[in-house]
Amino acid sequence: MRIRPTAVVLALALATLAGCGDDAEPTSSGTETGRQQASRSSNNVPTEETQEGVAPAPSTVTSAPGLASSGPGQVTVPVYFVGSTPQGKRLFREFQRVSGDDPLLAAADAMTAGDALDPDYGTLFPGGSFASVTEEPGAIVVEVADDGWSTRAAGMSRREARLAAQQLVYTVQGVAQSRLPVRVEAGGEPVPLFGIDTAGGLRNAGPDGVLAFVNVTTPEQGATVGSPLVASGVANSFEANVPWEIRDGSGAVVKRGFTTAEGWGNKLYPWRTKINVSKLPAGDYTFVAMTDDPSGGEGGGPTEDSKDVTIG
């Protein structure tokens, strides 16, 4: 596990715009809610119901006055990576500290390299980096270093190509805190990205088509935490129920509960909870947040996002 300095949480995100081609909307069936799931105790695992206040919804663009400072010459930026979900590959957001000299390019570099703190995340970009990323009147302009990304890489499907384009769009729009269209250029002229025409500017697809249905913002991967453990993130989960678990090094569940997101059904909504971990022995654990699964696994199972932490 690679551990890096703790990032500062930002209230960023992106509003729903045009959907992404052949991505299906999620469906749910059954009647059991996350509260009912969380209340079933097995092996004497403690259960807990918590509902705390939440930060402004990161699925809407806000008038935040700029990126948070993370130290001398640094800012904290959102970077979108790719991870596995029951719906296939989706985007997960991770906040990272980068140089404040050129945060747009630094975030794009982390994205293309797949340089995520969480080992469950990766990238669809097959190596390489962009030459520059600049915010200009009416667009965010991304300059490619060569024509290596003009066509799909070997083994890349059309859906993966569209998701890779969205990985770029969500990242640079998140850093710029703007929904400006993204143009990919070479020598000042528009060029395709993995076979996708970018001349008219790439726009962010609807979150339900490209984002994972649950994403943990805090605790961060590799963090050392005390009691209460404060967890937060975003989710689109059945009836807004967000079950969570704490697992020990063997994978056994030592504590479980649920919290409630601000909404559900059409986008990702913020959730937040505080968990009393004072009775857990100090050591390494994994915090897992998930979507409610009223189908009992028949629909592919819940989406999960996990973070390895140390309880001190």
TrEMBL record:
Keywords: Signal. Pfam families: Germane, Gmad2. Residues 1-20 form the signal peptide. Residues 26-48 have a biased composition (Polar residues). Residues 104-195 form the GerMN domain. Residues 20-70, 290-312 are annotated as: Disordered. The keyword Lipid metabolism does not apply. It comes from the Bacteria. This is Gmad2 immunoglobulin-like domain-containing protein. It comes from Nocardioides taihuensis. The lineage of its organism: Bacteria, Bacillati, Actinomycetota, Actinomycetes, Propionibacteriales.
